[in-house]
Amino acid sequence: MKSWKKQTSEPSGNQKNKNTRAVAICGLLTALSVVLLYIGSLTVLDLTAVVVCALFVMLVVVELGKKYAWLLVCVSGVLAFVLLPSKLIALTYFLIGGIYPILKARFEQFRSSFAWLLKMSAMGTMLLALIVLSKLVFTAEETYFDMSIPVILIGLLFLAVYDMALTGCVTFYIVKLRKRLGLKKLF
């Protein structure tokens, strides 16, 4: 006799365990990101903290997928905006350290030349958004946030080096560290 109950697509016990583990890992990395960004906002290591947090995002993209990376970025971004004394660092993290690594993973699925075109377009858009929002919303008085051609070109150069550094770190993690650290058991 067939059951007339509506079939639900609930995940199995093993899948629930994996989802719970992934959310817990994202929660830990979120807390660590916010602490690092807070320490960075109090010192001169603000951009260093953003780059380290970007590595957390890339780790989640590699091991758990883009869905959990978006969860990490959104939650840590909101907490950074609420808790950090410097909202500019929170904005920098959200755009450059959070959203960009996820977009980078997507863009690198295309041919190299088209991927670089997409990445440079995204970088330019994020840099422009950072400059405009820092001036208009957060009223930053720093001269390095002026919208000038040299600032934009230096910013794009920095972001291109940042992209290559992220690629190198992810490659090093996948090729050398993944097996040695035994993190696969966590994911």
| Rg computed from alpha carbons, rounded to a whole number of angstroms | 19 Å
Q: What coarse outline follows from CA principal-axis ratios?
A: globular
CATH architecture: Orthogonal Bundle
Structural class of the secondary structure composition?
A: mainly alpha
Give the CATH class: Mainly Alpha
- Beta percentage is under 5%
Q: Largest sheet at a glance?
A: none
Helix content: over 70%
Strand tally is 0
Task: Summarize model confidence as the mean pLDDT.
Answer: 86
Unreliable segments (pLDDT under 50, ≥5 consecutive)? 1-8
Task: Give descriptors for this structure.
single chain; mainly alpha; Arp2/3 complex 21 kDa subunit ARPC3; 6 helices; 78% helix; 0% strand
Task: Annotate the secondary structure layout.
Elements: H1 13-42, H2 46-63, H3 66-83, H4 87-107, H5 112-136, H6 149-181
Helix pairs in contact: 1-2, 1-3, 2-3, 2-4, 2-6, 3-4, 4-5, 5-6
Describe the protein's architecture and organization.
This protein has a single domain (18-185), classed as Orthogonal Bundle (Arp2/3 complex 21 kDa subunit ARPC3). By secondary structure, it is mainly α. Helix 1 packs parallel to helix 3 (66-83), helix 2 (46-63) runs parallel beside helix 4 (87-107) and helix 4 runs antiparallel to helix 5. Helices cover 78% and strands 0% of the residues. The model is unreliable at 1-8 (pLDDT under 50).
